[in-house]
Design brief:
By secondary structure, the protein is of the alpha+beta class. The protein is built from two helices and four strands, in the order βββααβ. The strands form two sheets. The protein has a two-stranded parallel ribbon. A two-stranded antiparallel sheet has the order 2-3.
Length: 55
C-alpha cells in the first residue's frame, strides 16, 4: 500500500445500511464531486471516511 494520503469523504456514521456499507449523504456526494467522481466512478477506489464535525 502507498504512503500517499487517500482522499477524505464525509460519511454519516448514523446512516449504516450493512455491516460495512453506509448511505451516501449530500456531504458524501459533494466530496466525490470535488474529486470529479460520481458514486459509480468511485467504486473500487480507496478513501478515508470522515464522520462527525470534520466536514
Amino acid at each position: 500500500m502507498s504512503n500517499e494520503a487517500m482522499p477524505q469523504i464525509f460519511i454519516d456514521l448514523n446512516a449504516r445500511m450493512t455491516d460495512n456499507g453506509f448511505l451516501l449523504t449530500e456531504g458524501s456526494l459533494a466530496d466525490l464531486a470535488k474529486l470529479g467522481l460520481t458514486p459509480e466512478t468511485a467504486v473500487g477506489k480507496r478513501f478515508t471516511f470522515m464522520g462527525g464535525n470534520e466536514h
